[in-house]
Amino acid sequence: MVEADGGCCRCCCSFIFTLGLTALFMWLSLRTSKPTCSIQDFYAPSLNKTLNTTNSTLYFDLKLDNQNKDKGIYYDAINLTFYYGSTINSSVGNLTVAGFYQGHKKKARRRMLVQTEKVPWAAARDNGTVWFRMEMQTKVRYKIMFWKTKHEKIAVGAPVEVNATNGKKIHKKGIKLKSGAPERWGYRAPVALLGILSALILVVF
């Protein structure tokens, strides 16, 4: 009788463990990663002293990288806001980029101009470097096989340091746009569940 009860207990634990593994593998296959957004180039013609121009536009090269191996991304309209200075005070320009679809493991570039206003160009030219900031907001849906997920909000931004002599971005490498929100901890739950189930199996056996 005791052996029968022990065998039943082992079967139940093995069944629970199998369910846990199945849930974990399903979660891993459905898990999505947000696109990586970065500023590859940034240029302010009005700061280029060799041009002697009053052109108040800003040129930028925005890179969107979908690192998901088998999931496409549908972007809603991408709203970009530009600020003079490294912090968010008063905006000097706005631009909306049309939404689009991006396949898995694909990269997209948006090289565009934005018209600015209320930028103190004269004072900016007297400095060695000038700071701007780009903020990006959009919503995305992920395509997983034949269905789409619910909308997920993306709000990221980054400061850009510009040379006040030639108007070009100082750092040659791309500048990653980051979110101020805390990192999600949801992915740790299945791992913790798997650990608990493994411990139960070891205790039973």
Describe this structure in words.
The protein contains three helices and eleven strands, in the order αβββββββαββββα. The chain has helices at residues 2-30, 121-125, 188-204; strands spanning 36-43, 57-65, 71-75, 78-84, 91-97, 100-102, 107-115, 129-144, 147-148, 152-163, 175-176. The strands form two sheets. Strands 3, 4, 5, 6, 8, 9 and 10 form a seven-stranded antiparallel β-sheet that branches. It has a four-stranded antiparallel β-sheet with strand order 7-2-1-11, with no helix packed on it. A hairpin with a 6-residue loop joins β4 (78-84) and β5 (91-97). The two termini are 17 Å apart. The model is unreliable at 185-193 (pLDDT under 50).
What topology does this entry show?
Layout (H helix, E strand, L loop, with lengths): L1 H29 L5 E8 L13 E9 L5 E5 L2 E7 L6 E7 L2 E3 L4 E9 L5 H5 L3 E16 L2 E2 L3 E12 L11 E2 L11 H17 L1
Antiparallel strand pairs: 1-2, 1-11, 2-7, 3-6, 3-8, 4-5, 4-8, 8-9, 8-10
Helix pairs in contact: 1-3
What keywords describe this structure?
7-stranded antiparallel sheet, 11 strands, elongated, 4-stranded antiparallel sheet, alpha+beta, 205 residues
Shape: elongated
* Number of extended strands: 11
How far do the termini sit from each other? Answer: 17 Å
Q: How does the helix and strand content classify structurally? A: alpha+beta
Compute the average pLDDT: 84
Estimate the helix proportion, in percent.
10-25%
| Radius of gyration from CA coordinates | 25 Å
What proportion of the residues form beta strands (DSSP E)? 35-45%
Q: With helices defined by DSSP (H or I, 4 residues minimum), what is the helix count?
A: 3
Sequence stretches where pLDDT stays below 50 over 5 or more residues: 185-193
Largest sheet entry: 7 strands, antiparallel
Topology pattern, helix = H, strand = E = HEEEEEEEHEEEEH
